[in-house]
Design brief:
By secondary structure, the chain is of the alpha+beta class. The protein is built from 9 helices and 13 strands. The protein is globular and about 65 Å long. The mean pLDDT is about 95. The structure holds adenosine-5'-diphosphate (ADP) and magnesium ion (MG). The site of adenosine-5'-diphosphate has 13 residues, from α1, β4 and β5.
Length: about 325
């Protein structure tokens, strides 16, 4: 059971006021009520489990909350949806103090505020390890959700930000490597920035396929190829990496960039005609966006991803990020 009584806990996490106009009833009854007449609701859930998705050594409670919500916002971004609401299911183990639990909620609250999201409900129970399950609800104009199945032959393949940073940060945290320039990577691991604002700027586009990079680009690119029934051709040299990544061993760099997870950038494909709009959207937000390849008709029965490292293209298999065993 809870050390802090359940009512004062719920009181402490409850927002004094809400920002979403569509919210009819927030925390305080058996369920929340929301009303949106002319929008499609987009919803997703993501769960993190202590020792599986994070270690206490690498993540403060604040980061655990922040990142759990960030990964969900990233899913909304990949759908082209405006983040609006979230619900939190918490399984708490005796090793976690009241203050630590509060910090988890503060981490979520700060990111939520930046995206004008309201915490509208959840559940709180006891268990043997900490688990945090976050459900998000976003809004999109009817019929305007962005699907990974929308890639077409001739498209430009692009990616936001830089890849591999999060795994570099995790590496530094796990190995206690003193690195004066390591904080960029550590921040990217602990407090990733989901690209929701960028995705919303793409609203005027007639078509764009989007997927967020939670498991690594080899995995996400294959998901696009697979569900769109096309082949993706990527140029390894064009994949954007932070300059500081170069001081790590080559094999690690390649693994982090292609199969590392949790960068929460977006990969997408768009027609060459609308590619300038994508670049403008990114420029408006001072976000980096880079063309890393193109889309072609599939050669086999299923869509596949090819990458050119040196010389010829080779198959890039769908291997993603492995969590702690
Ligand atoms: P019930 O017994 O009706 O499920 P609870 O006591 O579980 O109600 O919750 C009371 C209120 O507090 C509800 O509005 C619920 O959504 C909210 N709530 C409970 N736990 C959380 C949590 N971890 N995060 C956000 N809201 C929560
Ligand atoms: Mg309940």
């Amino acid at each position: 059971m809870f050390r802090m009584d359940e009512f004062s806990f719920i009181d402490s996490i409850r927002q004094p006021s809400y920002c979403q106009a569509g919210l009819v009833k927030g925390i305080g009854d058996d369920a929340a009520v929301i009303r949106h007449a002319y929008q499609d609701l987009v919803t997703a859930v993501d769960t993190v489990v202590e020792s599986v998705h994070f270690l206490r050594k690498t993540m403060d409670p604040y980061h655990i909350g922040y990142k759990a919500l960030a990964s969900n916002i990233s899913d909304l971004a990949a759908m082209g949806a405006q983040p609006a609401y979230y619900l939190v299911s918490l399984v708490r183990s005796p090793e976690w103090t009241d203050d630590e639990i509060q910090e988890i909620f503060i981490g979520m609250k700060e990111l939520a505020r930046a995206h004008q999201m309201d915490l509208i409900g959840g559940d709180t129970v006891s268990g043997s390890v900490l688990m945090l399950s976050v459900t998000v609800i976003g809004l999109v104009e009817p019929g305007k959700a962005r699907y990974r199945s929308d890639a077409r032959e001739g498209d430009v393949v692009f990616v936001t930000g830089t890849l591999g940073d999060s795994q570099a940060g995790l590496h530094l945290l796990l190995h206690d490597e003193a690195d004066p320039d390591g904080s960029v990577f550590i921040d990217r691991h602990q407090m990733p920035s989901p690209r929701a604002a960028f995705a919303l700027k793409l609203r005027p586009l007639s078509r764009v396929a989007l997927n967020d990079i939670s498991d690594g680009i080899s995995s996400e690119a294959n998901e696009i190829a697979d569900s769109s029934g096309v082949d993706l051709y990527l140029e390894e040299k064009q994949i954007p990496v932070h300059t500081g990544l170069q001081r790590f061993p080559r094999e690690l760099q390649e693994q982090w960039v292609l199969a590392g997870g949790e960068d929460y950038e977006l990969i997408g494909t768009v027609s060459p005609a609308e590619w300038p709009l994508v670049r403008q959207a990114a420029a408006d937000l001072q976000l980096k966006v880079t063309q890393i390849g193109h889309v072609a008709a599939k050669q086999q029965e299923q869509g596949a991803v090819y990458i050119r490292k040196q010389g010829a293209y080779e198959l890039l298999e769908k291997k993603g990020y492995n969590h702690f065993k």
